[in-house]
């Protein structure tokens, strides 16, 4: 059985070839860098120092052939053929992954989005960074949802669940889930988080990609961070937006500019079209910025292409969290 070694942290674990490296690490409560877990975001990209791997099919835009030649791989698609040594600095510098129960404190449905508040047992401690997510255990499968609340209020967790027809968990939320029920979850997971720099930031989201963005903004407020912030939020229709009452409250406390985009209709007070169109109108050069994108994969790919290839954003200043609905 091959062995995975991670340097410089000196972590080792065994792995079966049938399991990808990311899954094997998460199963042993190692929060290896990752985002979408489907080979589309590049968050789990790291360098193989030694050993041979096979790669499942992945998005060629996030791992170029020249990067593979340089020794880089995607953990969520990599299978170890031999013992493998990975270089992943700093990944242990975070909160421990836990499996915990949580009581449903409140469910509020706003059009197609349910806002769920989960209460952590008083005997348990749970910490997370703004931008991270948890896996909800439901019917033997995991469903990933970003944490939308302020990390400093970590005795309760806030989730935003968009309704999808035949979506196993969203159908359960809409038709069966009641307040006071108990759910089990695993987390915190993921490496999408605000960087500790003084750079101005651009936050871009679609749909419930607003959830981790909300958490990041609330952490900026509570930490009294002073920086220029631009928020772009896109949806198909006006009814897909929710919690809009928070936006003017944030603007009173932050240097925050907000652009709301609707792609399928014309609505007064909203920009018509996609977030990428408005970004290209507002900026000609992003070399001093950081961009954080959350939502559907196509949007993230388009924003990356625009920001990096046309607006001079450094590749290392682009951070993303791709949302992938599941009906399984």
Could you describe the largest sheet, including whether it forms a barrel? 6 strands, antiparallel
- The coarse overall form would be globular
The strand order across the widest sheet is 11-10-13-8-9-12
Integer average pLDDT? 92
Question: N-to-C terminal Cα separation, in Å?
Answer: 31 Å
| Class from helix and strand fractions | alpha/beta
Tell me the number of helical segments per DSSP (H or I, 4 or more residues long). 7
Strand portion: 25-35%
- What is the H/E order? EEHEEHEEEEEEEEHEEHEHEEHEHE
Helix content: 10-25%
Query: Unreliable stretches, pLDDT < 50, 5 or more residues?
Result: none
Radius of gyration: 20 Å
Structure summary, number of beta strands: 19
How would you describe the overall organization of this protein?
The chain has helices spanning 21-27, 65-69, 168-175, 210-222, 246-253, 275-282, 297-309, and strands spanning 3-7, 11-14, 45-50, 53-55, 72-74, 78-80, 84-87, 98-110, 113-119, 133-138, 141-146, 156-162, 182-189, 201-206, 228-235, 255-262, 271-272, 290-296, 318-323. The radius of gyration is 20 Å and the shape is globular. By secondary structure, it is an alpha/beta fold.
